[in-house]
Amino acid sequence: MIFADIPKLIPFIDLEDMGLFSCFYDFVFFIYREKGQKSITIQRAVAAWRIVLNGRFRLLDRWCNFVETRPTLSR
């Protein structure tokens, strides 16, 4: 699956360049969408955030836990 290959792309992208990072972030969320959907599930969003924001967002674990434990967000 392509999901497993996304972390392999990170070393080849200058993620310090905010324009490139934004494009990469959008690409990851586009890939994680289910066919025909405009948005993604909480589970897929958390998986994508853990890949893309790892080492960039110090509150990543707290954010993911917050999102996963909010019943109104998980519907």
TrEMBL record:
What's the protein name?
Defective in cullin neddylation protein
Concerning Pfam families, the annotation shows: Cullin_binding
- Outline the extent of the DCUN1 domain: 1-75
According to its UniProt entry, the protein's GO biological process terms are: protein neddylation
GO CC, sorted alphabetically, is: ubiquitin ligase complex
Look up and give the organism this protein is from. Answer: Paspalum notatum var. saurae
Record-level Gene Ontology MF annotations: cullin family protein binding; ubiquitin conjugating enzyme binding; ubiquitin-like protein binding
The task this protein performs is described as:
Neddylation of cullins play an essential role in the regulation of SCF-type complexes activity.
